[in-house]
Amino acid sequence: MTNDTKNGRGSRARGMGVAALRGLALALVTLPGAVLCFVLSLVSIALIPIGVGLVTTPWVLTGVRAFADWRRALAAEWGGVRIPSAYRPLPRGANPWTRTFGMLGDPATWRDLRWLPVDMTAGFVTALLPAVLLYYPLQGFAIAAGLWQPFADSAAGTYWYGFVPVRDQTSALGAGALALVLLFLAHFYTARLLDAHFRLTRAVLGSNQGELAERVRVLTETRRDAVDTSAAELRRIERDLHDGAQARLVAVGMDLGTIEALLDKDPAKARELIGQARKSSVEALSELRELVRGIHPPVLAERGLGDAVRALALRLPVVTEVNVDLPGRAEAPVESAAYFAVSEVLTNAVKHSGADRIWVDLHHTDGHLRATVSDNGKGGAVIEAGSGLAGVERRLGTFDGVLAVSSPAGGPTMVTMEIPCALS
Amino acid sequence: MRVVLAEDLFLLRDGLVRLLQAHDFEIAAAVESGPELAAALAELEPDVAVVDVRLPPTHTDEGLQCALQARRRRPGLPVLVLSQHVEQLYARELLADGSGGVGYLLKDRVFDAEQFVDAVRRVAAGGTAMDPQVIQQLLARQAGDGRPLARLTPREREVLELMAQGRSNAAIAGKLVVTERAIAKHTANIFAKLGLEVSDDDNRRVLAVLAYLDHGR
């Protein structure tokens, strides 16, 4: 009990010291940094009409962004205050004109420029105060301890420690008492003041649209992926139908026409053609079946994800244990995405892992459908461009799903997929 | 022989009715949905039911579920399930009660009328008729393990496949164009190599083979 309290106090004192140090460091950088950035930006923007600004502005604004981003990072690391950075991406290799006006057209740029004056005033003060609150009492104690003499003797008149005029040992002790009060306050307020600094930074620099913008960017990207994938898929289906089942059915029709003509003339030949037509129709059917399995597996439609994965496991050449804990069914597109993701990962495991046992686990917790595929193979699986796993990641991305791979060399491999969804 | 038929596509239902009637089956009822099937199976007590897996109103595996339920109420009720696709998963569920009289075939098999009608008769008689595709999946998986199945000769594997589909020695002999004695010798070898007990009962024989393929790794 006593120990706990002691530790609590110890860490509080340490936290106070750390906060003061950080505040001091911040204050020392904030003022020159913000002033420099602000002045350079103003000058550079002012120089745009004569052309010089066109060249310098992108550089300067990039510097400002770096400065702001660095402060965002500090806010997250020191204060736990997350300030999303939401600059619009600039086209690669754009000319100075588009770069300059692209950056000036970005509301985030103006947010930066508005933040700089605030940062060099209020920001500076809130950063410096924690340090002052901790270090000023030290001076008070020193004065009370006897250091008041050189101060009081100075020719400049009365030395003031706070509101206490220091003339003799008594008033010096008064300064010491004030220092004690200040230290007491510091005990409570240093950390909060630094926190206030970061909150102030977020209030000015942060944009409530930041996360939205990020979300929109991600959605745009995944939508493009989804559109690309489904377009490719449609082309594949069209080609498969055209070259496969469709052609075979045409052949059946032609055979039937020929049979009609031959029926009286050459029954033997007609019989032979009937056999051929039947064979073609069987082949057309099995091709259609394969195609359907590739688009939407029948078991998935009939039974849902759990049994579809079980049925899949039964077809694998490697012993596969499937564990399903799903109290309901997800929406069809989610089920389908999860099924094909698991299917692809299983195929990978069978082809590359060299495993002789695979485990699949499907369950739903906290609004997430989680599928885990592990094997006892040799490991070394990575998500790299063009690999099956990258494809899976893209497919899952459309549903805000994520993929994580743990596969040290020597194994085992564990692939986890997670899709946010509700079950019905 | 009285048949209850469940198939939601009119064309197929019509074709099946004509096909079965042409082979002297009596169609007790030809229905198009799960609830109708359940009612027909309970009331009409047919000799065999031919059922599509996917039926309205749910368009999921309603047909299969109806069949399984009817078999729970009336154990051994012969049921032949037809499907656009075949899955081991469903085959296992049908075989699970071990009482025989079940079949699970691709709809394509209807193309070979003789074979299809033979399957219906076999199931009605309490035997089994598993689709070659299911058996091939099982065998492929087993061959991957490389153990006892690898010791079978190609001919023995062929015999095993037909046996697992539910055919009697006589039928296998006819199909492979050899004498029944030769098949008996093959089956004895297969049983010995797989460590299965020899049985005269066709249905038990099939179940033994399937059980081995399923678990005997």
UniProtKB/TrEMBL annotation, chain A:
Keywords: ATP-binding, Kinase, Membrane, Nucleotide-binding, Phosphoprotein, Transferase, Transmembrane, Transmembrane helix, Two-component regulatory system. It catalyses: ATP + protein L-histidine = ADP + protein N-phospho-L-histidine. It comes from the Bacteria. Pfam families: HATPase_c, HisKA_3, Sensor. One of its GO terms (molecular function) is phosphorelay sensor kinase activity. Its EC number is 2.7.13.3. It is an enzyme of class 2 (transferase). The chain crosses the membrane at residues 21-41, 47-68, 124-151, 171-190. Residues 333-423 form the Histidine kinase/HSP90-like ATPase domain. GO terms for cellular component: membrane. Gene3D superfamilies: 1.20.5.1930, Histidine kinase-like ATPase, C-terminal domain. This is histidine kinase.
From TrEMBL, chain B:
Keywords: DNA-binding, Phosphoprotein, Transcription, Transcription regulation. Residues 145-216 form the HTH luxR-type domain. The modification 4-aspartylphosphate is found at residue 52. PROSITE patterns: HTH_LUXR_2, RESPONSE_REGULATORY. Residues 2-122 form the Response regulatory domain. Pfam families: GerE (PF00196), Response_reg (PF00072). SMART domains: HTH_LUXR, REC. This is DNA-binding NarL/FixJ family response regulator.
